[in-house]
Amino acid sequence: MQIGLISDIHSNYHALKTVLQFLDGKIDVLICLGDFVGYGPQPRECVDVFLDYSLSHFFCLGNHDLGVRFRYSQHKQDPSEKDFEILKTFKFRESAEVMLDRNAQDIQEDHFKFLKNLPFKQIFQVDQKKIYITHGTPSVRRRENVGKYLLPPPLQEPNVTIDRLKHDKKAENADIIMVGHTHRRFLIRREKFLSWSLIEDILQKKQTKFPLQYSFENDRIILNPGSIGQPRDGTGNSSFSIIDLDKEIVEFHDLEYQMNNFYKLTKKKCVPEVQDSSFWANKFGHFSEQT
Ligand SMILES: [Fe+2]
Predict the structure, then answer these.
(1) CA 70 to chain centre
(2) Sheet of strand 249-255, all strands in order from the earlier edge strand to the far edge
(3) What is the average per-residue pLDDT within 162-191?
(4) Ligand 1: distance of its center to the CA of 131 in Å?
(5) How far is CA 93 from the centre of its chain?
(6) What CATH code would you report for 2-280?
(7) How confident is the model at residue 285 (pLDDT cuts 50, 70, 90)?
(8) How confident is the model at residue 288 (pLDDT cuts 50, 70, 90)?
(9) How far is the CA of 87 from the centre of ligand 1 (A)?
(10) What is the pTM of this model?
(11) From ligand 1's centre to the CA of 34, what distance in Å?
């Protein structure tokens, strides 16, 4: 059983298309951990792909998905009170706010329905493995599910991350926990306290070669695949994972896409800060915590 794991597309259809073409025929299940939209120029195209998606799949809601669906519901004069209660506790940067508005103006009713139906978290079983997915942090609080960062090691020690799981019994009992939101890939083995992150490799000046295989035999893990549309951990390429459940191996991938065509489009449809290539291809390991 092969699971394709993606997250944080951010309306970057050029990157999404390249990754889905790569995964085609290689996976049995697709999991996406949210932030389908926000920041980028093509929210409609990015959601269209999943409106009628034939492969078995599990998705959850990101903070930018929440922002776009709320703004769309406002335009329809039918704002969701529950979404507003969560959103008012977040602080998006100014360019993010403007792009949430533009994305909300770009989508149509079927895209809105897709975003509206995304759950804050999902717990399900594939083969014998209990899997828990959420965008930010495993928690019983929805605000933390979409908006709280679970940082990669060494920015947060693995034992601190593992300790956080006590806040949600269902997470404590899961075999594989998958999170996104930071746009930075990592893997933590829970019983063995072993971990890997690309940031750690960069800080230690290691040359990381992709695809990178990491075994988790007989261990429970916490995993972040990085970001499809806006990686923030060093290479600038789309990052995602393939999990082989039978062999208990996570394979981290790093895939180049047609960035030049994408930047041309951002110049037409995005605010100036978001037009800059360094915003989408963070090659210098810059560790800002802004959403
Ligand atoms: Fe994101």
Answers:
(1) 19
(2) 56-59, 29-32, 2-6, 238-244, 249-255, 212-215
(3) 96
(4) 21
(5) 18
(6) 3.60.21.10
(7) low
(8) low
(9) 15
(10) 0.96
(11) 7
